[in-house]
Amino acid sequence: MCVGLSAKVLSVKDGVALVDCTGAKREVSAELLDDLEPGDFVMVHAGSAIAKITDSDENQAAKLAKEHLV
Amino acid sequence: MSELTERTKKYLEEYDGPEIRIMEVCGTHTHEIFRQGIRRILSPKISLISGPGCPVCVTPVKYIDEAVYLALESGCTVTTFGDLVRVPGSSMSLAGARARGARVKVVYSPQDSEKYASEHPDEQVVFLSVGFETTTPSDVLAVKNAIRDGISNFSILTSNKTMPGAYEAMRRSTDAFLYPGHVHAIIGTGICSELAVAGTSGVIAGFTGDELLSALAVTVRKFSEGKPFWVNAYPRVVTDEGSPAARALVDRYMQPCDADWRGIGVIEQSGVELRDEYSDYDSRRKYNIPEFKTEYKTACRCGEVLQGKITPEDCPLFGKACNPEHPVGACMVSGEGACSAFYLYGGKL
Q: φ, ψ for residue A47 (rounded to 5)?
């Protein structure tokens, strides 16, 4: 139950977003994120988009390594 | 594997500094670390211990008894995430109640439960509202939408918990926390900073292989420097402020309360419940559920597993009387539980 899934926003209307999660399309609540737009990537938890995803994990790892591990 | 990943992996393999115990607070972290084979490559100086961060695992026995009561005695339709169905209560699980004719339905989200209630006005629909800061906003949205849509046959049975109290209760069990990224997507990073000032270290981690490797490497590197620390190693999702919208929504409908953590006990102000003005949507008050003072006597040692005091393999029931087909403890029932992970992936593989 506690698993977050990343998904791409396809459309947003009346507080509901249609998202694509590795090919599966589903409506989720967009009420927690004000400025969602098609093309955004979001983290979905229990039927709600809870946060935007703003970068790839590879880029994030590179930045962390540069800052903390070099 | 990229050169960077290779270097990070090598650092964790060859680490020869002071010994460190890292607590994975989140059950999904426990499973992903196993699944990605990360435990296998860690230096013997690095120990991982599992914490209390699986909401199903920390749901108390009496909560299951309340849900069974609603299903069997009150005649409610109980809707729930699937992994709660087989968690043992003091006399039976929800699966047992279903076998006795109760209506127990698995849903994907609280909103699906509210939708089911709107489509079945002749049924009294209860949603089992269990989870941490990540799930609670969705539970509240379902209540908010039910009020908006005039749906009076929907309510939630709350056992929602908040992580800061658990961090405080667990902080002496570990040298550093691997903080659950999605909880901090809601609550932000302030608590990590406060804990570091108080001497408790930790790193906010994401869930992919690269994210877990880099979060663990940062944890070990910072620990070897000898000072309390915190790092947000999941900035692509977690911002310092978290989600003010989600917190405001929850604050409007819910208030802090003491919460009972299965196997651990009551932690003050570590939960939330619906405010009095929304009591019509609070199953506990709507159906006058009696006080269950149940004690579940078993040799199961889930409580110690949840506190990082033992590994699942130290429990006498593990893999014998308790296995995924016949779980005794909640840590084996839940797909995110530590016992389930150790059983599935073979302990220290």
A: 85, 5
Q: Which of B3, B134, B145, B160 to mutate to test the interface with A (most CBs of A within 10 A)?
A: B134
- A63, two tokens: 């930045």
What is the edge-to-edge ordering of all strands in the sheet holding B20-26? Answer: B46-53, B20-26, B176-180, B201-205, B230-232
From the CA of B336, how many Å to the nearest CA of chain A? 8
The verdict on residue B254 lying in a domain is yes
pLDDT in tens, B214-229: 999 999 999 999 999 9
Q: Which domains does chain A have, with CATH numbers?
A: 5-69 (2.30.30.140)
Give the CA-trace dihedral at B276, B242, B169, B225, to 10 degrees. -170
A15 to chain B, closest Cα gap in Å: 11
Co-location of B72 and B221 in the same domain:
no
* Among the listed residues B20, B41, B39, B43, the one whose alpha carbon sits nearest the alpha carbon of residue B31: B39
**B251 and B197 belong to one structural domain:** no
Q: What is the pLDDT of residues B156-174, one digit of tens each?
A: 999 999 999 889 988 988 9
Q: Flag whether B260 is in a domain.
A: yes
Q: Which of residues 260-319 of B touch A (CB under 8 A)?
A: none
Range of the domain at B216: 3-54+164-232
Helices (H) and strands (E) in chain A, counts: 1, 5
Residue B108's H or E segment, with its range, is none
Q: What is the mean pLDDT of residues A49-54?
A: 95
Q: Which of A22, A48, A66 is the best residue to mutate to test the B interface, defined by the most B CB atoms within 10 Å of its own CB?
A: A48
Do B199 and B131 belong together in one domain? no
Q: What is the per-residue pLDDT across B72-101, written as a single tens digit (0 to 9) for each?
A: 999 999 999 998 998 888 889 999 999 999
The answer to whether residue B213 sits within a structural domain is yes
Global ipTM: 0.93
**Same domain, yes or no, for B39 and B76?**
no
Q: Going by C-beta distance under 8 Å and a sequence separation of 6 or more, which residues neighbour residue B192?
A: B179, B184, B202, B204, B230, B232
Asked if the structure places residue B303 within a domain, the reply is no
